[in-house]
Write a structure and sequence with these properties.
Layout (H helix, E strand, L loop, with lengths): L51 E3 L5 E3 L33 H6 L4 H13 L7
Antiparallel strand pairs: 1-2
């Protein structure tokens, strides 16, 4: 009984035409690849590519589409996906630590090399 002394309405059943079925959530498809997976070298995977990066939340993303990254699954990649045509071996990455932390600018590199040439050595006094 409700507040006014009326009987409670019956619970809706699945057969009731006025009740909409609950919408099942569709899994998000990962579309964070620079090109179509499987168009790269046979036997290679995204996990062996030099463009793979850890993005927001620790999920893997492709660095070639960094401008399109979001915080969601839509721009993630799966490391087990077959390589795309943009795949490059991990050995082509100059220094992995610099890639994730941000490479120093050319001006900074030139300044460091200039310091090395201008600094007198121990025998030059």
């Amino acid at each position: 009984m409700n507040l006014f002394g009326e009987p409670d309405p019956p619970e809706p059943s699945c057969a009731d035409p006025n009740v909409k079925p609950s919408r099942a959530k569709h899994p998000t498809v990962r579309r964070g690849y620079a090109a179509i997976p499987g168009t790269g070298p046979a036997g290679e995977k995204c996990g062996t590519c030099c463009h793979r990066e850890i993005g927001y939340g620790g999920w893997y993303k492709c660095d070639l589409i960094r401008a399109h990254w979001t915080g969601g699954l839509g721009t993630d990649i799966l490391l087990r996906s077959p390589a795309c045509r943009e795949w490059e071996p991990e050995s082509s990455r100059a220094n992995p630590a610099l890639k994730t932390a941000g490479a120093p600018s050319k001006a900074l590199q030139q300044t460091d090399s200039a310091k090395k040439t201008l600094t007198p050595g121990p025998d030059q006094g």
